[in-house]
Amino acid sequence: MSIRAKFLAWVDVLMRVAPLFLLDEILKMNLFNENSSSTQLGNSTNFDMINDTIEESTLNQTEAILSSTFDVYTLSITLFKCLIFLIGCFCSLAIFMLWTRHLVIIYMYVISVGLIFLSYWSNVSAISLLKEGNPSLIEDILNVNVLRLSSPDGTAVTLLPHFLLQYVMGTIFAYIHLGPKHHRIQQILPFTFLMPLTLAILPIPLNIVKHAPTFAAVLPLVLSKIAIWSASIDIFKTLISGYRHAVSFAENFGLSALVENEWQRLNVPCVLRAFWTIRLLEQFASLTLSPEGEALSFMFTIQKLLVSGCETLIALLGMTSIISMICHYLGVLFQMFLMSDEDEDKSIGTVSAILFYILSLQTGLTNLQPDKRFIRLCRNMCLLLTALLHFLHNMVSPILMSLSASHNPSRKRHTRALLVCAFLLISPVILLLILWSRHQPSTWLLAVTVFSIEVVVKVLVSLATYTLFLLDAQRQTFWERLDDYIYYIKAFGNSVEFCFGIFLFFNGAWILIFESGGSIRAVMLLIHSYFNIWCEARAGWSVYMKRRTAVQKIASLPEASSEELQKFDDVCAICYQEMTSAKITRCRHYFHGVCLRKWLYVQDKCPLCHEIVINQDLKTETEKTTNDVAVEPAQVPNLEHLLPRRATPSRNIHLHHQPHRGSSTSESRESSHSSIASNATTNSNQNPSSSGGSGRMMAGN
Ligand SMILES: [Zn+2]
Ligand SMILES: [Zn+2]
């Protein structure tokens, strides 16, 4: 990107920041009189601004109608404010969404109107400096009265900057105004700006000169008015065409594509970040420049800044974007530390942003009093921190698996992954120690505790499987029990998670009923109970049943005797490893019991000859049990996971009857590890993806 393009992108972002400030101010507006008293109380700190959402406004409105004895005046004022509120919100959002070229036009118009008022103000203040009875400037010039002309508080010196300013403003206005541009009008415009001061120089009575600024503003105002009249149809057309464009885009590519497209076009995260930073700087300046600013301690300033940073919904969005950026870079940092080059966890920023915003919404952050709001913010930050630990675990766990499976000799990578695990074990404990020593037990504290323990359990499960795979790598022979151990460990981890999920459901329900209600919280609780309790339970049950039927089928097959194995003298066609024990299928093919069991998760046919593996009568019996469990297609593990990764796909496997022995042992062993690893992960119930985890987090508190 060239410097010019970067600069233009920045200008675009800054131009979109202004409507956000407008929206922010509108949201801060007090719609109702009963709030204004509290505003006056805390006016010095500017904290008690209570912003009202639209729903609340209508609610309060009905209350007002019911309680007051039809005070028409207050009602009409309130209605008027509501109207202004709605129009303001709509306008600022519409301006925010405009194309850049339309945005430039709006800015030109606003600047030109602003110039008119600035010029008026400058004229009035300059004329007020003139003193009655003094000889006019033109007389001084004609008399060459150098002393009076050059004296520092004389008329000439005070008027000169205003004179220059007026000329500059006149020229700029002539250049950018949107009214009809005739050659004559363009030439006249700077002079109309200069007119009042010119009159002030001439020997004209002061009470006539005093009215000059008003007349001078007439021509530019008329031009602006014509501009807005003639543009009103265009504005309407632009809005309509924008709406049509959006609708047709959504019809062709879907709503999510539209949102994504607009998100990128408007560069929303960047705009929000710029908005929040500017807002923060403004608050900081007003805090430090205020009379009592010197006495404020550092922590107190930070607290105030944070509290005012989530004052309105739009400010909260800005804060969210900053937090999302911080989380994203934390993720990148850890990824660099782990030396992984996968970019799966790019979403860490997005998910944490959604998590933070919904948490804030469901705890009603913007409507709280400042001190309570700060506490709530800290609590949400704690929850976000535990969520981050979960993300980190999701990042490090696959790395551990791949390290244990791939015989990776790089000790550095092993050490780093283990260090991150140690961090994930220690930090929740420290967090809990600090929180429990300082706070009374509460639903919030319980939720944080549960999330922290969950992280610890998950990390321990990952470490246990990692150790098992490493131990397996040390062994010379095939470890039949490994798959069982892995299954038990995963089952333990998942059951703990499931129990915690149920606990969080009750915790959330408690908060919903006894502490703070709210529709967002109820929806979150529903989402949590569906995805984290119902779906998890179903998936876990189906995995359990599938495994049980597979075990039953395997048990029905005859075991190969040692003579038969000697006569066979080949590797298992599924994992390419030596066989010390084997099961014989109906079609007289030999496989490891464990390998065949994993194959049976997928299908009942022999991998080599496609015959039905087990006897028919048993099959019908087992089929009955499988049909009891609704197996979703997503639950069936991918076929390729069962096969050695470097081998050809399943349908070609019969070509590999006689793989090289010896030379490829290490390679095939390695691939068998990875296949087990990936299989184990698919088998464990569809794992708590980051989004599921965040749903759980929101419902939990
Ligand atoms: Zn095998
Ligand atoms: Zn066969």
TrEMBL record:
<keyword id="KW-0812">Transmembrane</keyword>
<dbReference type="GO" id="GO:0008270">
    <property type="term" value="F:zinc ion binding"/>
</dbReference>
<feature type="transmembrane region" description="Helical">
    <location>
        <begin position="348"/>
        <end position="368"/>
    </location>
</feature>
<feature type="transmembrane region" description="Helical">
    <location>
        <begin position="215"/>
        <end position="236"/>
    </location>
</feature>
<dbReference type="GO" id="GO:0036513">
    <property type="term" value="C:Derlin-1 retrotranslocation complex"/>
</dbReference>
<feature type="transmembrane region" description="Helical">
    <location>
        <begin position="313"/>
        <end position="336"/>
    </location>
</feature>
<protein>
    <recommendedName>
        <fullName>RING-type domain-containing protein</fullName>
    </recommendedName>
</protein>
<dbReference type="InterPro" id="IPR001841">
    <property type="entry name" value="Znf_RING"/>
</dbReference>
<feature type="transmembrane region" description="Helical">
    <location>
        <begin position="417"/>
        <end position="436"/>
    </location>
</feature>
<dbReference type="GO" id="GO:0043161">
    <property type="term" value="P:proteasome-mediated ubiquitin-dependent protein catabolic process"/>
</dbReference>
<feature type="transmembrane region" description="Helical">
    <location>
        <begin position="156"/>
        <end position="176"/>
    </location>
</feature>
<feature type="transmembrane region" description="Helical">
    <location>
        <begin position="72"/>
        <end position="96"/>
    </location>
</feature>
<dbReference type="GO" id="GO:0061630">
    <property type="term" value="F:ubiquitin protein ligase activity"/>
</dbReference>
<dbReference type="Pfam" id="PF13705">
    <property type="entry name" value="TRC8_N"/>
</dbReference>
<keyword id="KW-0863">Zinc-finger</keyword>
<feature type="transmembrane region" description="Helical">
    <location>
        <begin position="443"/>
        <end position="471"/>
    </location>
</feature>
<keyword id="KW-0472">Membrane</keyword>
<keyword id="KW-1133">Transmembrane helix</keyword>
<dbReference type="Pfam" id="PF13639">
    <property type="entry name" value="zf-RING_2"/>
</dbReference>
<dbReference type="GO" id="GO:0036503">
    <property type="term" value="P:ERAD pathway"/>
</dbReference>
<feature type="compositionally biased region" description="Low complexity">
    <location>
        <begin position="673"/>
        <end position="691"/>
    </location>
</feature>
<dbReference type="InterPro" id="IPR025754">
    <property type="entry name" value="TRC8_N_dom"/>
</dbReference>
<dbReference type="InterPro" id="IPR050731">
    <property type="entry name" value="HRD1_E3_ubiq-ligases"/>
</dbReference>
<feature type="transmembrane region" description="Helical">
    <location>
        <begin position="491"/>
        <end position="514"/>
    </location>
</feature>
<feature type="transmembrane region" description="Helical">
    <location>
        <begin position="188"/>
        <end position="209"/>
    </location>
</feature>
<dbReference type="InterPro" id="IPR013083">
    <property type="entry name" value="Znf_RING/FYVE/PHD"/>
</dbReference>
<keyword id="KW-0732">Signal</keyword>
<keyword id="KW-0862">Zinc</keyword>
<feature type="region of interest" description="Disordered">
    <location>
        <begin position="651"/>
        <end position="701"/>
    </location>
</feature>
<keyword id="KW-0479">Metal-binding</keyword>
<feature type="signal peptide">
    <location>
        <begin position="1"/>
        <end position="23"/>
    </location>
</feature>
<feature type="domain" description="RING-type">
    <location>
        <begin position="572"/>
        <end position="610"/>
    </location>
</feature>
<feature type="transmembrane region" description="Helical">
    <location>
        <begin position="103"/>
        <end position="121"/>
    </location>
</feature>
